[in-house]
Design brief:
- The complex is a heterodimer of chains A (216) and B (96).
- With 216 residues, chain A is mostly helical.
- Chain A has one domain.
- Chain A has 7 helices and 1 strand; from the N terminus they run αααβαααα.
- Chain A is elongated, with a radius of gyration of 22 Å.
- A 3-stranded antiparallel β-sheet of chain B has the order 1-3-2.
- The chains are: A mainly alpha (216), B alpha+beta (96).
- At the A-B interface, α1 and β1 of A face α1, β1, α2, α3 and α4 of B.
Chain lengths: 216, 96
């Protein structure tokens, strides 16, 4: 910290002080949550795109092309949300407890993805028909996503994440019964629309918060 | 207005304390991020921070991330309590 002289500041009335205090805290919240709408929008677009590609695979477009394109969309969404996520809470040094929680939660995604791939492989080795592999992968990863939303809701006390998580788990179970291609269409529409809705709601909320912070 | 804590009741320091009070206990904020958020010069921010530190409201930790020096800022328990008391006083004055 460099040595400087203290600059005199105009006296604050209690109402000015309260307004200033509230404006600063609203602005702080808006800065922390700034990347959230973009992350939600990324998945709100990627989710239906991935499941629509899988749905179309094999009868609208070749299955290999559909799976390749779906994986490409998934990769782009993962990278984009990781970059945006890294901006959340920029400059804040978390407590060791929070670091541990975040690390374990992040690792649980990797563990889930690898675990479900391993289970799928095991099922194929034990005779799962090839036509079920796509359905298995689609519903298993939808289930994992929903389940992780529920876990995130429990950790960060986020009710929208809880509602969305329960909904996606229910969709995954329903899609397993519907089979292909209907189950994939159900996942695309049933999972994509709520994510997009949440993204739009969060964008409106963030813009309102930002304008309230700057107007106060 | 004599009941209001003079350490907090100045525009610059109130803005600093209001931001730091939003952190969870145990969290801290990097100096450049706070400076950027407040739009203050480093010198002006440092002056206010020193006043808060002298009052026992602020904890300043100088550390390194790799080879880059980083300064982290957080309210002390005393600072947090002073801010809550200050907000309470304001609410009383405004009849909220």
């Amino acid at each position: 910290m460099s040595a400087t002289t203290d600059h005199p500041e105009p006296a604050l009335s209690p109402s000015d002080a309260m307004r200033l205090l509230e404006r600063e805290q609203r602005a702080h919240d808006a800065r922390i949550a700034a990347p959230v709408p973009a992350i939600l929008l990324t998945w709100g677009l990627a989710w239906p795109a991935i499941y629509l590609l899988l749905w179309a695979g094999g009868w609208v477009i070749p299955l290999t092309a559909a799976v390749t394109a779906a994986l490409a969309v998934l990769l782009v969404a993962v990278v984009l949300s990781a970059v945006l996520g890294a901006r959340t809470g920029r400059g804040i040094r978390a407590t060791p407890d929070a670091v541990f929680t975040g690390t374990v939660y992040g690792t649980s995604w990797t563990l889930g993805i690898l675990g479900l791939a391993g289970i799928g492989w095991g099922l194929v080795v034990n005779g799962m028909p090839p036509e079920l592999v796509l359905l298995y992968a689609a519903v298993a990863y939808a289930f994992l996503t929903g389940f992780q939303f529920v876990i995130a809701a429990a950790i960060w006390r986020a009710v929208p994440s809880l509602v969305l998580g329960v909904w996606v788990v229910a969709l995954a179970v329903a899609a397993a019964f519907l089979g292909t291609p209907g189950g994939l269409l159900l996942l695309a529409v049933g999972g994509g629309l709520p994510l997009l809705g949440l993204a739009i709601a969060q964008t409106i909320r963030s813009r309102r918060a930002a304008s309230a912070a700057s107007a106060a | 207005m004599s009941a209001l804590d003079p350490v907090i009741h100045a525009e610059g320091r109130l803005r600093i304390v209001a931001n730091l009070a939003k952190l969870s206990p145990g969290e801290s904020l990097a100096f450049p991020v706070l400076q950027d958020a407040l739009g203050m010069t480093a010198g002006n921010l440092s002056t206010h921070l020193r006043r808060l530190e002298e009052a026992g409201y602020l904890e300043v930790e100088k550390t390194h991330r790799g080879r880059t020096p980083v300064t982290y800022l957080a309210l002390t328990v005393r600072g947090r309590r002073a801010f809550e008391d200050y907000r309470g006083e304001l609410q009383t004055m405004l009849g909220a």
